[in-house]
Amino acid sequence: MEQLWGNQTRVSEFLLAAISPTPQSQAALFVVFLLVYIATLVGNFAIMLTVNADSHLRTPMYFLLGNLSFLDLCYSTVTAPKMLMDFLSERRSISYDACMAQLFFLHFVGAAEMFLLTVMAYDRYVAICKPLHYPSIMNRHLCSSLVVASWMGGLIHSTVQTILTMQLPFCGPNHVDNFFCDVPPVIKLACTDTYVVELLMVSNSGLISTSCFIILLTSYTTILIKMRSPEGRRKALSTCASHLTVVTLFFGPCIFIYARPFSIFSVDKLVSVLYNIITPMLNPLIYTLRNKEVKSAMRRLRTRSITSGGKMIL
Length: 314
Description:
One of its GO terms (cellular component) is plasma membrane. Keywords: Cell membrane, G-protein coupled receptor, Membrane, Olfaction, Receptor, Sensory transduction, Transducer, Transmembrane, Transmembrane helix. It is a single chain. This protein is mainly alpha-helical. The chain has a single domain, classed as Rhopdopsin 7-helix transmembrane proteins (Up-down Bundle), CATH 1.20.1070. The strands form two sheets. It has a three-stranded mixed β-sheet with strand order 4-3-5. α3 runs parallel beside α7. It is globular.
């Protein structure tokens, strides 16, 4: 079904690509990605609950970590439920409005996470390089302001991307070469020259992801330079290793997708699965497996839950 768009027609829905071509593999992937999505929800919710419930974790670092877990949970939820439904459907369609909404929230949450990861790098810089001034610099008010600024930055970025996309005429074809609606594969379907729009979008998304990544690398390089002793560098690297891993997993694919002209490569769908589905699941594992304080807090929370449950039974 199509709607009128001036003298042309506007598509009312898009057809999404399948991750796997055969029904048997689609069923197998449904089970795999359902487990991944459940693990993402459970892992990130567990970190949020632990950070809020344990008084030992009421510090700027863990306040930011709790917000990162919330963003990871939202980011995965933008695409995973629709993808899971499409595994069980022969016709993977999405309405025009739903496609634009998915595109908006994907860039909203994704950009907010980029900014938040940059804030977390600044937090580690202050903690390691200015430990005596850390409590006064990274106070609760500043942390809350930086989190709000991250969300606002994501909102502004996403609004620009979505408006530029919605202004394009889509009169067919309507086959999106990915399993969700994103800017590069969607604007390729516009029935007009998109060179200027692509240039603006690459400048927007590519500049944000690349700039944040450079700031992060500069921050960690500065930390290592300031730590003159090998022991100090080892401790600094150990402290920042979890964040560096998360940054690499998130920014690497984003720079690959958005910091180049919008040509569609066959590997794009695999890269999209990595940063949309896999990375939000890995972040809780990375932070809990490498962080003794978080593991100890989770054990204390579990012990309290068991004890409370035992008293209720008695």
